[in-house]
Amino acid sequence: MAVVTLLTLTALATLAEPALASGAPWHHPYPGGSSNCSSSALAEFALGKVLNDGAPVFGVYADVQDTTSTWMKAYADNTLIVHMNLPGTHDADTWNYSTATQQSLDHVTQLANITEYNVAAYRCQDLSMLTMLNDGIRVFDLRYAFDVTNTTLVFWHGPGLVSETATVDDVLYGFYRWLDDHPSEALFLSFQYEGSTTPYGRNDAGVQLQLFNTLTTPAARQYFLQTTGSIGTLGEARGKITLLKRFDEDMLPAYYTNALPGIHFSPLNWTDNSPNITLVYNSSTGGTAYIEDYYQPLTPANSTAEENIEWKLNATEAHITMAATTHPNELFWSFASSTNLVNNPPITPAIQALGNGSLTPGGGVNQRLVPFLEGMKGKRLGIVMFDFYEQPAELLPLFLSLLPANGSRGVAGGY
């Protein structure tokens, strides 16, 4: 297995007591600590340790082979990525952020004088990233920053620390291992620096250099698609991760930016809280992305959940309709996720996505998207990012069924 060999190179030197990804007690295979353990077995233990370290963010690894975990098999290699419908998850790493998680990290967050809020303000998912992969999710929105010691890159949502110990590098090995088990699939990881973490957190040269090093290890060079500024075919992307760079390396020499693969969506050009962003990611070719990231409805003060849901739904449906009818050979990226915490009362991600009981009889954005998507059969919608994608149960299967695998597409202007 390729990832085992790479792991031997990058992690074995620092291997401590091995731990299996399953969390089961570990027992030395050779009583008395015999040195007869082969290098391949040791590499397996090293892989198990790294997967176990990443489990609080990635999930406990298990190999699953079913129709949703391999849905890209049905599409031809020459299918253009921009012609596909790719489901994604917004703030994917927050699935394990709970009151218990928050309390377990109190001794860490108190070191940085972090003020804790209701966990519902930060949690945007309920299922692990491993489950997301097996369910068919292919695009992951990941938010990183230094931990409270300014030492390692970990995952945050604002001041919500997801884990102090599961590093970005640990979690990437979960994606590498999953691709080994599902070589027909193509993944897209969006990395964005998360501000407002600790009072002294900065996107400085140290953060940028460590991210660069993480994304250019021998393992990363094998598993990340090594192309820059272009989006090609599914065949080129299979078994690989396409890096979506929602970050700048502006504190480092230009070499670093030029040496990273992927597609650059500079934060400087990503209009904040906008229902319609036009972002040129390749000035030489004119490669353009059309993006909807209206994450906080600009509703009147003291607005209701119903109003906030409707405002967000209108923006998302308008952008998806645009994807289905215009610019057939450009990238479309829509976010069905949103929140409005400054409202009174606050509107959490869960309320926006799933509704607020009897106060929103039509449900949230997710439920209301279902009849809309039913009218989009055969249409190219591009990337659509969801919160709590598994609710209602028909949402993701419906989205994955919209484009048949026979190559027919329904977009104005033709292909």
Layout of SSEs?
Elements: H1 2-10, H2 39-58, E1 85-89, H3 99-104, H4 106-109, H5 129-135, E2 139-146, E3 153-157, E4 160-161, H6 168-181, E5 187-193, H7 205-214, H8 218-223, H9 234-237, E6 241-246, H10 254-259, E7 263-264, E8 274-282, E9 287-293, H11 305-325, E10 331-335, H12 349-354, H13 365-374, E11 382-386, H14 395-401
Parallel strand pairs: 1-2, 1-11, 2-5, 5-6, 6-7, 9-10, 10-11
Antiparallel strand pairs: 2-3, 3-4, 8-9
Q: Sketch the major β-sheet.
A: 11 strands, mixed
How much of the sequence lies in strands comes to 5-15%
Helical percentage: 25-40%
Q: Provide the CATH topology of the largest domain.
A: TIM Barrel
- Poorly predicted regions: 1-35, 407-415
Mean pLDDT: 91
Query: How many strand units?
Result: 11
Q: What is the molecular shape?
A: globular
Using only C-alpha atoms, the radius of gyration works out to 21 Å
Calculate the terminal CA-CA distance, rounded to whole Å.
Answer: 39 Å
Number of helices: 14
The number of distinct structural domains comes to 2
Q: Which CATH class of the largest domain is shown? A: Alpha Beta
Task: Note the run of SSEs as H and E.
Answer: HHEHHHEEEHEHHHEHEEEHEHHEH
CATH architecture of the largest domain: Alpha-Beta Barrel
The CATH superfamily of the largest domain bears the name Phosphatidylinositol (PI) phosphodiesterase
Class from helix and strand fractions: alpha/beta
Give your account of this protein's structure:
Helices cover about 30% and strands about 15% of the residues. Strands 1, 2, 3, 4, 5, 6, 7, 8, 9, 10 and 11 form an eleven-stranded mixed beta sheet that branches. The chain folds into two domains: about 65-270, Alpha-Beta Barrel (TIM Barrel), CATH 3.20.20.190; about 270-415, Phosphatidylinositol (PI) phosphodiesterase (TIM Barrel, Alpha-Beta Barrel). It starts with a helix and ends in a 14-residue tail after the last helix. It has 14 helices and eleven strands. It is α/β, with parallel strands linked by helices and about 425 residues long.
